[in-house]
Specification:
The complex is a heterodimer of chains A (289) and B (154). Chain A is mainly α and 289 residues long. In chain A, 74% of the residues lie in helices and 0% in strands. In chain A, helix 2 runs antiparallel to helix 9, helix 5 runs antiparallel to helix 8 and helix 8 packs antiparallel against helix 11. Helix content of chain B is 38%, strand content 17%. Classes of the chains: A mainly alpha (289), B alpha/beta (154).
Chain lengths: 289, 154
């Protein structure tokens, strides 16, 4: 990729990702409502929510929370920018891990029991996610010979052909990353979870709005990772990637609405088992063949 | 001026209610009545709530709790008393431990009477509350603008 193309991609990501993320979240809520035979909120509801949150009075238990949550947002955006600039996938996953530490700090700094417990569960979620993400990066290297996004999507065949096991493991942890129902231990969108609001218990007004906006950036980044599994040098593969992204998103909504929450231990054991078996076997096959 | 009334998030607190009104409040969120189509979300967290739905009368033990929940909610905020007990104390009015309706400890804006209040009237109460929430939000914005201007001049 030339420098100009990289800059255009990064600018498009910074400007459009929150809009696409909000739209996806709105569609999520609408489809969830229809699955429960409800009418559901308007598709733009997440945007309305954030606009309202930005206008409310800020009550913060600890002043540093605002700084920490903004750091979380900026680091996540930077991660996305690096990804869309076509830098190393491995580095992207590492920085993504760093950004979630800031979310943890923003929650524990308040000292609230609910939010601290949510924060600890967030760390457990990160532990469950990380192996599959790192395996994915290694898989990309073995399958395409490069960690760089530009080379991964520039090959004659899609990466998924050589690494279906890595893709399955990635889809599994995507449910955790997107805070969907069997694994929404840290923070849940469904009414009346036992942890009040988990990690966001002590976040109100502006801080919660930044949290939501970061979620949108993160969703778009995760969907882009799904896309690089599919895209190859053929232009038609971009359409295939969009179809796969929509299917994956629908699958997540379906799982969200049909599964009851698991305990954090089950989540950790299950995600590591799936990662080890499906990505591990794929890894051995790639190394041997 | 942003339209904040499209996103009224509620905090539901059960005072010394018999649970009749609480079940009706939850019923208004279920598929039949689906208050979420108005953007309503049951937050369960005072820091994120805009509308305080309170059911049941106030007794000497929960008075301080209700007050604290109200104080924890960021401005602008609206209080809705659901059911006759939250409005006046209802049949428990003369009981030794009951202080009266929710308005004995916090300012109540909307009264939704009934025993138990029906989901239709609760949703009607929420719609009135969100209109008031919009009005308060505009007042809040004007106040903040004025404050910022004064700060800049000083």
């Amino acid at each position: 990729m030339t420098t100009a193309v990289r800059v255009i991609f990064v600018v498009l990501y910074v400007l459009l990702a929150p809009l696409i993320g909000a739209l996806l979240a709105g569609i999520d809520r609408k489809i969830s409502a229809r699955m429960q035979r409800r009418i559901g909120p308007p598709v733009l509801q997440p945007l309305y929510d954030v606009i309202k949150l930005l206008k409310k009075q800020v009550i913060a238990v600890d002043r540093s929370q605002g700084f920490l949550i903004v750091s979380y947002m900026i680091l996540t955006v930077i991660t996305g920018c690096l990804f869309f600039a076509g830098v190393d996938v491995l580095m992207v996953f590492f920085i993504l891990g760093t950004s979630s530490v800031f979310l943890y700090l923003a929650a524990v700094v308040t000292g609230s029991a609910m939010s601290s417990m949510g924060a600890q569960r967030e760390l457990v979620q990160d532990m469950a996610i990380e192996p599959a993400l790192l395996f994915s990066a290694v898989g990309f290297y073995l399958a395409t010979g490069s960690f760089e996004v530009g080379s991964i999507i520039g090959g004659p065949v899609s990466a998924i052909v050589k690494m279906p096991g890595f893709f399955a493991a990635f889809l599994f942890v995507l449910t955790i990353k997107m805070r969907k129902s069997p694994f929404d231990t840290a923070q849940g969108t469904h009414a009346h979870q036992e942890l009040v609001k988990g990690i966001t218990t002590e976040m109100g007004a502006k801080n919660l709005a930044y949290f939501e906006i970061t979620e949108w950036y993160e969703t778009v980044l995760m969907m882009a990772v799904v896309a690089i599994y599919i895209i190859n040098s053929h232009p038609a593969s971009i359409i295939a990637a969009i179809v796969v992204i929509l299917l994956v998103y629908f699958l997540e909504i379906l799982i969200d609405n049909t599964c009851a929450r698991l305990k954090w231990k089950d989540m950790l054991v299950l995600s590591w088992t799936v990662t080890l078996i499906s990505a591990g076997v794929n890894l051995i096959l790639l190394m041997v063949i | 001026m942003a339209n904040v009334k499209r996103s009224p998030w509620i905090l539901h607190y059960d005072g010394s209610s018999c649970n009749g009104c609480d079940i009706e409040v939850l019923a208004s969120m279920t598929p039949v009545y689906d208050a979420e189509r108005l953007g309503v979300e049951n937050t369960g967290d005072p820091m994120q709530a805009d509308i305080f739905l309170i059911t049941g009368g106030i007794n000497s033990q929960n008075a301080s709790v209700v007050k604290q929940l109200y104080d924890q909610m960021p401005r602008p905020k609206v209080v809705v008393a659901v059911g006759i007990c939250a409005c006046t104390g209802g049949v428990f009015k003369d009981a030794y431990n009951i202080l009266g309706g929710a308005d004995t400890v916090i300012p109540v804006d909307i009264y939704v009477p009934g025993c138990a209040a029906r989901p239709q009237s609760i949703i009607d109460g929420i719609i009135r509350a969100r209109d008031l929430f919009q009005k308060r939000s505009e007042e809040h914005d004007a106040l903040m603008k004025k404050k910022n201007l004064e700060r800049r001049q000083a």
